[in-house]
Design brief:
Blueprint: H1 3-12, E1 19-24, H2 34-37, H3 40-43, H4 51-72, H5 75-78, H6 114-133, H7 141-157, H8 161-173, E2 188-193, H9 197-206, E3 218-220, H10 226-236, E4 242-248, H11 251-260, E5 264-266, H12 283-294, H13 298-303
Parallel strand pairs: 1-2, 1-4, 2-3, 4-5
């Protein structure tokens, strides 16, 4: 860890409170999508939810995600060039002004050589910039209204899963949606998803999670695995005051957390009566998992009440 990194970490910690780093899975944890599309979410309610309606909702989300990926985030050009995180090719980026850059005419192809890696790095920088500005500049008011309505319909259909997950992020990070500075939180939220990087960033925007998940805190594990992503995260926040907890529904993040000796909270999205789903899981719930591994913190216990 270099001196600059060490200084940045010191700025994030206080003399009293530890910094909790939450490592989230995406689908069937922070959001519901895959289980809507295949019907398993609705089927788990044994007939009390309309399976067909759930599939329709999932398909509408899928349509909007793919359209915004292609229209706004250069996905057609980079679909076959998935990277594990948005800054993975930063060393190839020479800082060129991209304000007048034409991504359609630069001859970009699969980045086997340094020149094309630089062109991919340009695209990643453009994607990061667009992501940090939020969804509003990317779509017209009509599309925004449609997306807002779809969010509310989905939240109602899923018994407030989406808004409850977002409330968790808001409660433990002390960041209100729409704040100008997503770095003002005391705790840190990181996404490690088995989905491709660009669609995962778009999901964060559409499901109103971008306030809490910066572009550089989104990882795609498709090619490298979740354990490798967890190791990178540990390297980024390698400080005695940082505590880590993984939250997800899958075996891979569970196994990776065990290897890292981090607590793991299993989300039971197919168990309607479980408290380990949204709504149900709260920062206070997760604080017990932190305490079991790292010991109890009086300041932390007070803050999570």
């Amino acid at each position: 860890m270099n001196a600059n990194t060490s200084q940045k970490l010191e700025a994030l910690v206080s003399d009293v409170e530890p910094v909790n780093v939450y490592i989230w899975d995406m689908d069937e944890t922070l959001i519901l999508l895959r289980s809507l599309l295949n019907g398993t979410y609705a089927e788990s309610f044994n007939g009390s939810k309309d399976v067909k309606r759930g599939v329709e909702i999932g398909e509408m989300w899928e349509k909007h995600i793919l359209k915004i990926c292609d229209d706004c985030f250069l996905y057609e050009q980079v679909e076959d060039c998935n990277e594990p995180f948005i800054d993975s090719l930063r060393e190839y980026d020479d800082g060129k002004d991209l304000s007048m850059y034409d991504f359609k005419l630069d001859g970009f192809s699969s980045p086997a050589d340094d020149l094309n890696k630089r062109k991919l790095a340009y695209r990643h920088r453009a994607v990061a910039c667009r992501y940090e500005k939020g969804l509003a500049p990317l779509v017209d008011s009509g599309t925004m209204s449609v997306l807002d309505e779809l969010y509310e319909v989905t939240d109602g259909y899923t018994d407030r899963w989406l808004s409850s997950a977002k409330a968790f992020l808001e409660q433990c990070s002390n960041v209100k949606e729409g704040s100008s500075d997503g770095t003002s939180s005391s705790d840190i939220h990181i996404l490690v998803t088995s989905g491709a990087l660009i669609p995962s960033l778009v999901k964060c925007l559409l499901f109103r999670l971008d306030t809490f998940l910066r572009h550089d805190n989104v990882y795609s594990s498709i090619d490298v695995g979740k354990l490798q992503c967890f190791k990178w995260i540990k390297e980024r926040y390698n400080h005695p005051k940082f505590r880590f907890c993984a939250i997800g529904d899958g075996w891979e993040e569970c196994a990776a957390a065990q290897t890292m000796q981090w607590p793991f909270v299993k989300i039971d999205y197919l168990q309607p009566g479980s408290s380990y789903r949204f709504p149900g899981v709260t920062p206070k719930t997760v604080s017990y998992y932190f305490a079991a591994v790292y010991g109890n913190s009086d300041a932390d216990a007070t803050n999570k009440e």
